[in-house]
Amino acid sequence: MLRVRIVKSIGLIGWVAAALVFCSAQSFQPAPKLYRAKPEDVPPWAEQGNLRFIRLDGGQIESWKAERTWWGNKFSAEEKEVLAHIYDRDFEQMLGLLKQAEFNWIWVTWSNGWSLKDEDENRENLKKVIARCHENGIHVSAYLSASNMFRKSAFRDDPETKKYGLWMHGIPLFYAGLTKTGLHISWERRLADARKPGWRAYLLKKAELAVDAGVDAIMWDNVIGYDDGLAQLLDDTQQMAERKARETGRPKVMVYANIHIAPDRFGMNDIGEVIWEEDGKDTPGVWDGNWQVDNARKIKFLSGEKQLWQPLKYENDVYHCGRLHPQPGRAGAFHRRGLCVRRGHLAKHRGPIPLRADQGRAGSPGGLDGHRSIQPFPGPASGAVSQGGAGGADRLDLRGAAEPTGRRLPQAERLLRDQSARAPGQGSPPGPVQSAGDAV
After folding, report:
1. Which of 324, 336, 388, 391 is nearest to 359 (CA)?
2. Which residues of 276-295 are buried (b: 16+ CB within 10 A; e: fewer)?
3. Into how many domains does the chain fold?
4. pLDDT digits (tens, 9 = 90+) for 241-264
């Protein structure tokens, strides 16, 4: 019992130390020498209102990661199997679903902390995935972890990584998180210190392999530790991206990171072309007849603080996903049934799925339980939730949602006209208006 209490105490101290490193650092002030992202490096397909994004975590390395992290404990054997093979055996099926849902941007798990040797097979699979996505008009970000090391793998095959651990007050830091059931520490996930040039060089080797494979963007996650080192990692990545563009003649890949919303860190986003944010709890919108606006303040903050030209992508812990079915007797009205992607796995379905992708919002994971969701949208017969301009806040748009062709939805226009013509006190709006939010 004493040993258990000691271990728990060390773990709690480690988590507190990690929280201090992450939250109590001095406000980040980008130095003049650091890279500044430029609007001309955002291609038209990635501009706000044009992007339709979903994260597609997967591969054997992601399945291994799930086995060693709390959010993967509840995955069934089938889900682990699909997760492991989403980039090889099951990719053509997933590609068809991505096209049906009209996504034009995904990310793939390029590196999440394993050794170069252990990640080699995944990289080979992803070269084919990237090529197939490009053939079908889908752009690809490479997901990489900025601080995570699976220590048994990394220390065995890349022994220099033993020197790169993140420490605070003499305590080694591990990946940890607070959930509804308490503190969870992943003892096999050692955190690295981005202030160490050797660690940054090691990561850049992985990132450069992704650029060579043809990705359109580099995305850094697990941005944990000291801000000066992490900012230098972003700067180093941008310098590498510019060098590769000069050498190959290809457009420069975009670079961005999961900085988090804290105002004292937000300046780091100026180094990247894209804003990615995951601090939300529930997707703003109308669900089951009620407005959900708890996350709108964070989106407004992001919209005000970011550069006007930077596209905003965000994910929330709760996504309202489901298959759309016509409701008998109500033209244009739909209700939901379970259509979700759990770690890249689409729930089984029958018949066609009338999906439309949200423009500019990440249809992505549910934080602690690890769900991934494809955002379904109503067809031309009903209203839609659309992405709001450069600000990116969701809104219920009964004027009609613009399709990729720019054509407005005529039924939604008629609904707005009918509602405007209705005198006060003459009853509720027509059925499709009531159900427009439920259809999302």
Report:
1. 388
2. bbbbbeebbbbbeeeebeeb
3. 1
4. 999 999 999 999 999 999 987 778
